[in-house]
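Fold Annotation — chain and its backbone

Fields — amino acid sequence, structure tokens

___
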Amino acid sequence: MKLLIYSHFFPPSVGGVETVVELLATGLGNLRTSDDLPAYKVTVVTNASASGSSEPCRPFSIVRNPTKRQLRDLIASCDIVHVAGVAIPPLREALRQKKPVVAEHHGFQAICPNGQLLKEPEDAPCPGYFMQGNHSKCLKCRKSGSRFVPVRLWLLTFLRRRLCERVDANIVPTRWLGEQLGLPRVKIVAHGIPPRAPIVRISGNEKTLRIVFIGRLVTTKGVGLLLQAARQLKMKDHNLRLWIIGTGPERELLEIRVKEWDLGDQVKFFGFIPEEEINKLLAEATVIVVPSMGGEVFGMVVAENMSRGLPVLASDLGAFAEVLGGTDQTFRTGDADDLARQLLRLLRDSTLAGQWAKAGHERATKTLTAQRMIEGHDQVYRDVLTSRVRSMESCNR
């Protein structure tokens, strides 16, 4: 089967979409038939430029920055098109050519003009103004720049939605996202996690709460909220250490806040560090906190640390709760008081973190594997092609 996967984002850039698409393309490229023949000939098409060095050896081919004609010809030569991220040009061209096509949703582009389901400039969770028909709110939603940008994004949302209504299948990583989208022919295939060795947690001073944040330092990831909770705990004389791993445009402002709140002895910024160093910090952590304010359709950081066998506490976004398997390990999104209360639970009950870690690891190894993701996509493709054949047979009768 000739499969074209279109993804605007792809390595060498780094992110959740890049990780999932590369893992999927690799898995499908290595998949064999019962006759030990390649099940797929995979071509990844992307706008991401190469790093300058030669491409690593992969079981699929890559076409970077194609022209319109190249994209048209590539789509014409394949059996099925998979658009990761509901990009308009490949969706429109695949539908024009009447190719079997699936759209995989890595964001909220089909129901939210900014794709994040966030209100700007407040960076607060959006209740879904576009789907409610409250379009005046969408047209006012912007951080800065031209007032015409929200109008353009709003119009493109209608177009994306119309295209997604016509595809053969809409793939989502969580049932919650499928419910938010309200699109036809939704298929749920959870993202897979690259294999990771469990981290052996090191027992330390149980009277000190050791918190780790991993991610980009941007407002939507909720680091400022985590600092507010840390400040509350310090003011009540609770011992804590907060280790912040990652880089981003908000780092300077966050460091200023740490100084203003006299949290210098409690908070340390590590920036970007090698995975071996990250693992050393994680081994000493009481809990990994994922305080995102919105914009999450799955939660790779949540799933990855569950796979590592580490306890995770996350905001109660629908995707996070679904990946965790419940709400016992969540706090109210955007609520620093509730986050502080949930962290205190871990400080007062030394067994709780271990219980979370064990349950999370078991769930991740059973339901969030790369193999399940690959098999799930393979089944969607085959179902789509089978449906197409039956439809053609019906028309010929």
